[in-house]
Amino acid sequence: MTLSARLIEPVDADPACAIERLALRLLATREHSRLELMRKIQARGFSDGDAGLVLDRLERDGALDERRLAEQYVSERAHKGFGPLRIRAELREKGLADDLIGRYLHPFDEAWSEYLARAHERRFHAGQPIDRSDYAKQARFLEQRGFPVDAIRRFLKIQ
Q1: CB distance 78 to 111 below 8 Å
Q2: How far is CA 122 from the centre of its chain?
Q3: The pTM is what?
Q4: Burial class (CB in 10 A: 0-12, 13-18, 19+), 37
Q5: What CATH number does the domain containing 72 carry?
Q6: Angle in degrees, CA 151, 155, 159, rounded to 5
């Protein structure tokens, strides 16, 4: 935000209004978890108590919905070629609960091998490992993408 934009932005006497405006502006750009919003609100100097009350209200109103975040995030990341281990770790960093994450990862269980194959194809153009070094390079790439080691081994042996 530029200095001139800050000068034009209205100053609220009520911090709850400023917090709500900030949170809604952040949610308009993309889905956020409660933890992410809390961190961003705290970084701007607002109190935890005021922020907590505003976030409670946004959850009740449906503006802040971690289920919607989990569903969209899992789908988007899976289609970009990331595996379940990495997606789970990223959602944990966002503060989502394991049971919520599992609920949205589970429908993809049958498709992970296909996503693994697509990620491999995009990176290596269907090139089979020609030696141990190449095998290690391809396996390392897929592992960093978040695919389980046993699935990677099965896939690379088929190649």
Answers
A1: yes
A2: 21
A3: 0.84
A4: buried
A5: 1.10.10.10
A6: 170
